[in-house]
Amino acid sequence: MKSLLGEDTFEKLLKLIALGNFAFGLAILLFPHNTLELLDISPAQGPVFIEILGLLSLSFGVGYLIASLEPARHYGILAVGSLFRFFFFLLLIKELATAQIGVRGFFLLSAYLWIGLIIFCYILVDAYNQNTREESAPKKFHDLIKFVRTNQGQTLLALSEEKNVLLIFVRHFGCTFCRETVSEIAKLDSSIKGKNLTPVFVHMSDPAHADEFFSRYFDHPVFHISDPARVLYQSLGLSRGTLLQLFGPKVVVRGFWAGLFKGHGVGAFEGDFLQLGGYFVLSKGQVVFEHKTRGAADFFKLELLPQK
C-alpha cells in the first residue's frame, strides 16, 4: 500500500482516521439521542453508554494524531487501537444477537471499525519491518573474539584456548524465557561442567545489573559479556524474531507456564526485546557447535550439547 500511494501514505491515513474519530466523538457527545437513533441502538443502553463511546473515540483520535507523526515509533498506540476495535466488534455481535442494536447500526459501526483495523494492520507490519531492519553488515565473529572481554577480564579467544566455552546468548533480562534459561543452566551447572564446558552468558544489559541478575541463580560468579549493540549476536547470525516467533500461540502458552506456574515472572524490557537467542560451543577460537533458537519460547536442552 505504502509503495503504491507514496512514502507518507500511512501518516495521511492516520490523520484522516484521527479526524474521523474527532468527528464521531463530537457528534456523539453533542447529539447523543440523534446518534442512538441513527445507529439503531436500543434506548435501554441509555445516553451514558453512547457518551462513553464518544469520549473513547476522542481519546483514540488524539492517540492516532500522535501516531501519525511517526507511525514506526508509536506502533504501541496502533496496537492498542487495533485490539479495542476488534473487541468492540465482538461486543457488537453480542449486542446484535440480543437486539440491543439494529442491523443498520451494526453494519455502520462494523464498517467504521474494520476499515481502521485493516489500515492499522498494514501500518503495524510496516513498523515491524522498519524496527527489525539491520542497519549495517555484521562484523566477523572470529575478529571480535580477539577483543571482546568477559566481566572477569579475559578475551573470548583466550578463554576458549584454556577451556571449551558454552556461549549462551540470552534475550533481555525482563523476558520470562531468558530467566527460565538462566535458571535451567544454573541447575545443570555441574552437568555442563561435566561436559568440559564453561558457560559464558552474552546479554544486552549493564554489567553491574548483570552481576546482580546472575547472582539470583548462581552461588558463584559467572562469566558474562555485555553486548548492548548486539554486535556478537549479529556476528553469529542471531536475528530478531518474527511476530509469530515472539507472540505466537506457542509463545503465549509457554509464557504463562514459565512466568506464572514456574514463577519466573516478567520484567522491564532491556536492550532489543525482539532479539532471539541461541547457544554455541567455542573451542580454541572455533565454533564447533551451534543452536539458534527458533522462537522466544525455545527451551535449553542439555542433550543437544556435544559430548566431551
Structure in words:
Helix 2 crosses helix 3, helix 4 runs antiparallel to helix 5 and helix 5 (75-97) packs antiparallel against helix 6. The chain has two domains: 2-131, no CATH class; 141-304, 3-Layer(aba) Sandwich (Glutaredoxin). It starts with a helix and ends in a 16-residue tail after the last strand. The chain contains 14 helices and five strands. Strand 2, helix 11 (207-215) and strand 3 (223-226) form a beta-alpha-beta unit. The protein is 55% helix and 10% strand. It is elongated, with a radius of gyration of 26 Å. By secondary structure, it is α/β, with parallel strands linked by helices. Strands 3-2-1-4-5 form a five-stranded mixed sheet, sandwiched between helices. The mean pLDDT is 86. The longest helix has 29 residues, at 103-131.
Q: What structural class should be given to the helix and strand makeup? A: alpha/beta
Q: Treating each run of at least 4 consecutive H or I residues as one helix, how many helices?
A: 14
Shape: elongated
Strand order of the largest sheet: 3-2-1-4-5
Oligomer: single chain
- Provide the CATH topology of the largest domain: Glutaredoxin
Domains (count): 2
Which consecutive residue ranges, at least 5 long each, have pLDDT under 50?
Answer: none
Give the CA-CA distance, first to last residue: 54 Å
Order of helices and strands: HHHHHHHHEHHEHEHHHEE
Largest sheet: 5 strands, mixed
Q: CATH superfamily of the largest domain, please?
A: Glutaredoxin
Mean pLDDT across residues: 86
Helix content: 40-55%
Q: Quick one: CATH class of the largest domain?
A: Alpha Beta
What value does the Rg take, in angstroms? Answer: 26 Å
